[in-house]
């Protein structure tokens, strides 16, 4: 059991989300007026770093921002959340990661993501931040930075016996086999379908897909099922369905990020994986019950109050 604050290193994306709200999404060639705009700090890596920090992790981020004005805002935001950004590098002649999100009154959205500096996170960056990975209790990674960089980080973690959690989002069409040898992989339903090429409509189909995923990489699999909770497969045949808590969903955008950050911290503290999933389910539910991605991330006491 880790008695001090667990060390969580997150390698991943840092984005500025530019959210515009309009009556109807523009059609190709059309110019429309929006009702409002907002700049919101996001990126799966940064979201999960904030989630892990709010639930009690000592969090360090490995990533890149550009040399634009957003870079300062993104770094300041992470540092205000208690995330150590000494391994976040500024990139010359490059924009920070950007997501342009248009939301129409029906709630339907369309999103353009520009990876920018996230796409410039290199294997050399991993080498320079080696000690940040080696001294971690858990390395947490997603798929919004280049795969060779993620592979290099996972390799450093393995050599140092550091546990790795992979949130395979956004859904990949192909994942190198080495990435399936992490300790825990936590896809949602559509990511599970993309990774396995199997149907995931029914619980028995999900179970088969989870077992296939676990067997192909010999990793533990936690498939997040939104309001249905999480299906955990720790070894072939050893399946637990951990139900969600009941909440009124307001904005489920970052439920998976809240889940991953909370899972990393609680598991790193030495709790058994099913208990960590139970804790993470609550984090995901609280995040889904509030608007906004990072602003809606729950704090430790809020999750414990629900347990
Ligand atoms: P993602 O955002 O990656 O698609 P999910 O929507 O599966 O991830 O959410 C992650 C976790 O958050 C779920 O496993 C569940 O425990 C919790 N969660 C998400 N949406 C809800 C909801 N509507 N009600 C209760 N819990 C939820």
Any key phrases for this structure?
307 residues; alpha/beta; four-stranded mixed sheet; globular; binds adenosine-5'-diphosphate
Write the layout of secondary structure elements.
Elements: E1 7-11, E2 15-22, E3 36-42, H1 44-54, E4 58-65, H2 69-80, E5 84-90, E6 97-104, E7 109-114, H3 123-128, H4 130-134, E8 138-141, H5 147-159, E9 163-166, E10 184-185, H6 189-196, H7 203-217, E11 220-224, E12 230-235, E13 238-242, H8 255-268, H9 273-288, H10 300-306
Parallel strand pairs: 1-4, 1-8, 2-6, 4-5, 8-9, 9-10, 10-11
Antiparallel strand pairs: 2-3, 6-7, 11-12, 12-13
Helix pairs in contact: 1-8, 6-7, 8-9, 9-10
The chain binds adenosine-5'-diphosphate.
Summarize the structure.
By secondary structure, the protein is an alpha/beta fold. Helices cover 35% and strands 24% of the residues.
Description:
There is one protein chain. The chain has 307 residues and is α/β, with parallel strands linked by helices. Helices cover 35% and strands 24% of the residues. It contains ten helices and 13 strands. The protein has helices spanning 44-54, 69-80, 123-128, 130-134, 147-159, 189-196, 203-217, 255-268, 273-288, 300-306; strands at residues 7-11, 15-22, 36-42, 58-65, 84-90, 97-104, 109-114, 138-141, 163-166, 184-185, 220-224, 230-235, 238-242. The strands form two sheets. The chain has a nine-stranded mixed β-sheet, with helices on both faces. A four-stranded mixed β-sheet has the order 3-2-6-7. A hairpin with a 2-residue loop joins strand 12 and strand 13 (238-242). Helix 6 crosses helix 7 (203-217) and helix 8 (255-268) packs antiparallel against helix 9. The chain is globular, with a radius of gyration of 19 Å. The mean pLDDT is 94. It binds adenosine-5'-diphosphate.
